Amino acid sequence: MSEDFRNFVPSWGLRLLAFFLIVTLAIGATEASARKNPDAEQITYVFKRGDTLFNLAEKYLRKRSDYVLVQRINRIANPREIAVGKAIRIPFYLLKYRASEASLSAFRGDVAIAAAGRNLTPAQGMDIGEGSRITTAARSFLTLQLEDGSRVSLPSNSQVKITRLRHILLTDSVDYEIAVDNGRLRSKVAPFDKEADRYRVRTPVAVSAVRGTDYRTRVDEGSGTVFSETVEGEVIVAAGESLAGNSYISIPAGTGAAAAVTGALDKAELLSPPELLDPGKVQSEAVLQFSIVPRSVALGHRIIIASDAGFVDLVAEAQMQGSELELPTIPNGRYFAKVTALGADGFEGMPATYSFKRQLSTLAGSADAGDFGYRFKWFGEGEGERFYRLQILKGSKTATPILDETGLSLDNVTLSDLPDGEYYWRIGVIQFSSDPDDQEAIEKWTDFEKLIVAN
Question: pTM of the full predicted structure?
Fold first, then answer.
């Protein structure tokens, strides 16, 4: 600074000038930081009668002094004189909020919840707040319900962090964000009715936003690619950390987006819902078995089982190549199955939902010669009353039975007077449910077995 300038400007003026330079640089740095910060998105507020920047800052900004930044962003000359109806922009990160909470609707298996540096014991109905980390192990599931009625579900082998769970005071709006570190997340988001409502899913390489929809997010463990698939509504997906700029795409229902670690963002059509063969079949075997109508475009299929039609209480899931799916045993009851096709491009297709009955009823039999004749024996698993039926045919499987014993409650029959010959025999069971409200019995048979009698 020159000596002439020092002599021209009084000392108090120099101090004032220095103050404004510092404030201007600070505001510029803050704005530059905000542009890089994923929290830097803004809301629009329309001035009402009696509003000033000062009283807005007092009530709705985290720091009263932040009115200076709002004034700068909106190029407001006088913060005390702002026209009614003027729209101003305020960054989200400046706004006051109250903490919102999520409720643990359902969980099964090995679920870990950590918050504030300590591990929490999962319990249905417990509140889970912002900052919580949730992990599901193999064959484990969890569903949360947010304050506005939205639901998020974690299938097996997934890990997420609730990074934002807030209610913004100025706009009376929700601000939700969940970070998916690995695995999968299903978001069933209630329709938003306020412009400032936000729901976002953040991953290591992409961010997505919705205003009411049903969509899935998956981080591929091998490649790091993030897949977003829209089942209902519409989703906005951007590569990187922010939705700002032009690096985003819209994926309506039936489409998906893949964001690679390189920043590439691709869009694809999802495979149509698969069709189950014999969807009304009672699942009575020890292992649940589902057959899907084969399609050459599908590399494999995924199935998710839930006890409710909304798929809040997830019970089991499986993913297999081909068109045959098997799942471990589950308790008797009525269930819902959601089946999707897996494409060669890495996307999971649109779902088809079926209801089915699970009633365990296994059956096997044997026949052998003993001291007192030929003994036919049977065994199996099932809850509720079981009645057996033994059929024996001579000569062929299509002959009229020479023995047809029904209503047997014992597990064996011995016949001492079978003449020489070739016989075919089988065992049937009528299985009643242990549920008193379920009056429907099921009947099943073993395959015919061949027995040659030569005395």
Answer: 0.82
